[in-house]
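[Automated response] Your request has been received and processed.

Submitted sequence:
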Amino acid sequence: MGRGDAAAHAVSERLRSLPSVERLAARLEAPHALAVAAAREAIEARREEVRAGAEGEVDLLERARAALSGAELPSLRRVLNATGVIVHTNLGRAPLPGAARDALAAVAEGYANLELDLASGARGSRQAHVEGLLRELTGAEAALAVNNGAAAVLLAAAALAGDGRAIVVSRGQLVEIGGSFRIPEVVAQSGARLVEVGTTNRTRLADYERALAGGDVAAILRVHPSNFRTVGFVEQVEIETLCGLGPPVIDDVGSGALAAGVAALRDEPPVRRSVLAGAGLVCFSGDKLLGGPQAGLLVGRAPAVERARAHPLARAVRIDKLALAALEATLRLYRDPERARREIPVLRMLDAPEPELAARAGRLREAIERAGGAAEPIRASAKVGGGALPLLELEGPVVAVEPGRDGVDALAARLRAGEPAVVGRVQDGRLLLDPRTLTDDEAEAAGAAVAAALAADAGDG
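Generated structure:
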């Protein structure tokens, strides 16, 4: 038998020595279907290792138990965000304030008066729970909440121009809003016809006026370029001037800046300004700078809002009761601007003072060093994220962790696999943990998780 034949024979023998799925599953304390799935996963993984040349023995039962434990974990679970990206889309965007979490839990516990008027006993509207608050906070005549920001723009375009009539938009505002969703495609799906005016960097009042002279213009769309900025030789028409041209204006302001007194938000278009200018529909998100749940909000003139409310798409994109409960609670906080800045996590992170961040970074570093890890405080910049304020850099203290023998990618993977999972950012071969996007309790938990991951790395050696 040649050397190659002998090696192939050895691999075949090792494969034949593996137990059957049923035999391994019978040794697991779990419902039969779960036990079989875990056993099959462990055996298939070992088969691949043997085919790749692995030798020696492994504990298949322990591997199957680990697979079983993993299967029992929820797929969607808590993550400690140490990236410094405040509105992190991959991590669920805005963390909810305590009042919103409490409201959501209360409604989730049983039934709720979602569409019941408790005073009269008659059927009510789910919009009644937030419309008054939105009118109060923005100065709008009417308001409507749907399930996300893109849906708000789609509904606005469909309601005002979905019968094939024209919507005029500047070429500089034909943006991509994430996930490859582009404004021209959203408008096309609404049934409206897009009329582009101006250029990518300069659009003048005369450009809009020429388009309107052609007739059959149902609306003007203004889109805030929230995830990029054009600088230099640029010109745009302000919202007040657009609203004076005649057709209703759909103003997509993006992230939903409602807060007063937050310096970081000075470059975001205020919702109230667009409403006061007379925009027919102002569209913005609930889970970005507003700091609430995923939602799309439309506020503005009563006739335009009523057309959106009556459109068939409104049913398809309506907001659910859990998001509605969290949204109402978040909006109530805005009635007291100081309380909003204190209790809405996104606003608190944007406005976090240096001493608070330094103290939290210190606790992170101490927890890591107590376990024998190496970490040092450095300066770095956090970002808003979520397609908002792309030029804003929030400088502050962060903790740079030396990753140990296995390297930074292995440390990051260990932390992502933990409970709770911890996500930081990798820079120059070290793991950076930014205290801006952690609470005090989360910083303690993140420090303990990093310490445990470093200790496990050292123990493996």
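Summary generated for your ticket: The first strand starts at residue 79 and ends at 81. The chain has three domains: 3-72, 79-89+349-460, 98-343.
If you did not submit this request, please reply to this message.
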